[in-house]
Structure formats: C-alpha cells, structure tokens
Specification:
Length: 280
C-alpha cells in the first residue's frame, strides 16, 4: 500500500491506474480507524480495482475547538489496518495541503443540513461539504463509501453530489456494532470501559422502542426518558424523521421510510455519540 501526502502525487498515480482501465473506490475517513471503517474498505476492495482511503482530520467541520483537539489520532495503526484490508492508497495530507488558503465556499441544502446535527453544530455540514467536494475532485472515484452511522451526513452528501454534478455512486454501508449493540465509532476510544457499557444502552433502548407499537410522539418520549434515566447518559436530541427528507414526522404513515436519529452525551467528559434506528 502506498501512503501519499500530496494532491499532485495522488492525481498522478490515479491517472496511471485509469489509463489501465481500472475502477476507483474512495473511503473518506478522519482516521482513528476501527472495524466500522474496515468494513467500508473491504467492500470497496471487493467492488473496485483500486481503493483510496483518505485519512484527514478535517478542521472545518468542527465547531468546537476542544472536540477537534481531543479527537484520536492514530495514523500508524490506521495504515496497518488499511494494508490488512487490501487498500492500495492511503491519502494522508496535511491541513496546509488541503487548505493552502481558507475555504470560503458556502453550501446550503435545507432542510437536510439544517436539522438535527445541522442545528446543533452550526457550520458542521458546510465543513463536511468542503472536504468531501475536494476529495471527490482529487480522486474522481467511481464509487464512494460512507457508513450509515452518520445517517444525516449521507443525505447531505447526496445533495452535494447532485448539486455539483459529480458522476459517481454513493454507497451507504450498514452500521457495524459491538456484540452489545454499541455502534463502532472513533469517539469510543475516548470512553472508559465502564462508559462503553453505559453507552450500549443507547441502541438497546432504540431497539426496544420499535416493538412497543406506540404513536410517534410517545415513542420519542419513551426513548428520551429511558436513556436520560441512566446515570451517565443525557440525550441532546432524538428526532423521528422521513428517511429521505429528514423532515420530522407526526405519524408512522407519513413516509415510506422512517428513521430515528439520536445524539447522546456519555460520561463525565462528556463524549458526544450519535446513532440511529430504522423504524420502517
């Protein structure tokens, strides 16, 4: 596997592969890789001739400097994992390489990017669109792979791709969970073992809520009340939405696909965890 740090090197190498008629898959990451990322990489390796994995902790999508500062950084371990998964290229540029000048571009795709994470983290999705658009321009992939744990992010990226006219397939991949249901996340590395056990209650309660047969409002209140009753957990928001538009729904009949998206603070630090569940 080649580890590349510059855009010029990346483009030159990919041009060579394309001249040989090879297809390219892209897996964008911020590093601190885990089995969830590995599942995306392995799928790309299966479906493409060449797999590029970006490892770039993108500063423009963090609205909290402390959150950026404490985000795990494990480049050597990341590269070992990618090599084991069969990736051909790890693209690990510096911030200066990606942003030689401040990126002043503004992206807006309401309501997809203005609810839930968009409301709680102003500027977050604009930063996501900045870096994803750059990566798509550099790599020009046939397919790009994203984990469904970041459910809202995939919806925003679909809007971005359509808006800018990129010709590629966005491939959403299922959430990878631990045996206790906790969604794999780079932020889990910031949790103590006890906090990880506590955090596993998030998905347990979401899963329980599917079988209750309650109306939407009561389902919402059940999830929030049950999670908040557990010491060490505090719900920031829980939204039950149309799976395509991300607009809130008031009844289960409003959309063919309905998803519950949640963000919970866990632990004493606290660490912000996101998850979701599909109701229909």
């Amino acid at each position: 596997m080649k580890v590349i740090n510059t855009i010029i090197q990346l483009r030159e190498l990919l041009a060579q592969y394309r001249s040989e008629g090879k297809t390219v898959g892209l897996v964008p990451t911020m590093g601190a890789l885990h089995e969830g990322h590995a599942s995306l990489v392995r799928r790309s390796v299966e479906e493409n001739d060449i797999t590029v994995v970006s490892i770039f902790l993108n500063p423009t999508q963090f609205n909290d400097p402390k959150d950026l500062e404490r985000y795990p950084r494990t480049l050597d371990a990341d590269c070992k994992l990618l090599e084991q998964c069969g990736a051909e290229i790890a693209f690990a540029p510096s911030v200066k390489e990606i942003y030689p000048e401040p990126d002043t571009r503004q992206f807006s795709y309401p309501p997809t990017d203005s609810v839930m994470e968009g409301a709680m983290r102003p500027g977050h999705f604009n930063g996501v669109c900045q870096i994803v658009s750059k990566l798509l321009m550099y790599v020009e992939p046939d397919r790009a792979y994203f984990g469904e744990k970041d459910y809202q992010q995939i919806a925003v990226i679909r809007r971005l791709v359509a808006d800018l006219g990129f010709k590629l397939e966005i491939v959403p991949c299922p959430v990878v969970r631990q045996s206790d249901g906790l969604a794999m996340s780079s932020r889990n590395a910031l949790l103590s073992e006890k906090e990880k056990v506590t955090a596993s209650n998030i998905y347990r309660i979401l899963d329980e809520s599917r079988s209750l047969g309650l109306p939407v409002r009561q389902t919402h209140d059940y999830v929030v009340d049950k999670i908040n009753s557990i010491d060490g957990l505090e719900v920031q928001y829980f939204s039950i939405v149309d799976g395509d538009t991300l607009a809130d729904v008031a009844s289960w009949d409003e959309a063919p696909g309905i998803v519950g998206c949640i963000t919970v603070f866990c632990g004493t630090k606290p660490i912000r965890l996101i998850d979701h569940i599909r109701y229909k």
